[in-house]
Amino acid sequence: MKKQIITIAGLPGSGKSSTAKGVARALEYEHLSSGDFFRKLGIERGLSVEETNIVAEKQKDIDKIVDDWLVSLGQAKGHMVIDSRTAFHWIPDSFKVFLDVDQRVAIERTFQQIQKEGRGPSQAADSVNELLKNTLNRVENEKKRYQSLYGIDVFDKSQFDLVVDTGINNLETVIDIIVSAYKQWLS
Predict the structure, then answer these.
(1) Vertex 61: Cα angle to 60 and 66 (nearest 5)
(2) Above pLDDT 70, what percent of the chain?
């Protein structure tokens, strides 16, 4: 049975959070983010996102806490949009979306956002190249960790119902594409 849940995954800087918030607003659904939840766990331990990712390789309880949270969302709720790398795995009857983007475009977008709005120490970088290096390390770490833990490649686009390129589409277009495809998927 299809759930009225949309899970949105993608590379760092692909626009997961902005897109998920916009889709949730358009559908009048709740928005939740495993990244925010993960960052909160890291902050509680005095760690940045990168440090939390490294620690999570050895301390499996961090991923277990996030996984259990995602599973509980899939069992207990509906009418929500979740931005998360692994929610598609934990909520298999959700509408699964992958946001694709050229990594250089994503990094430049993220760096501009950091310069404009500021970010916590988890995304601190003095240059686009430094942010690119940090992000590529994070992607490799997550890819290796999720493959080891669950036997899944969170960046394999074939696992998703819809793949949208956020590099060639603006945010409003991406939201419209997802909402339209989701409504069609539900019917």
Answers:
(1) 105
(2) 94
- In CATH terms, 5-186 corresponds, of 3.90.550.10, 3.30.565.10, 3.40.50.300, 1.10.443.10, to 3.40.50.300
Triad 4, 32, 23: Cα angle to 5°: 60
Residues 6+ apart with CB under 8 A from 168: none
Instruction: Find residue 5's DSSP bridge partners.
Output: 80
- Residue 173 confidence (pLDDT): 98
- Using the structure block, give the residue that is written with the tokens 């036997």: 151
Residue-range domain boundaries for the chain: 5-186
User: Which pTM does this prediction carry?
Assistant: 0.84
Q: Cβ-count burial of 182 within 10 angstroms (0-12 exposed, 13-18 middle, 19+ buried)?
A: buried
Please give the average per-residue pLDDT across 12-29, as a whole number.
94
Taking residues 143-150, report their average pLDDT.
87
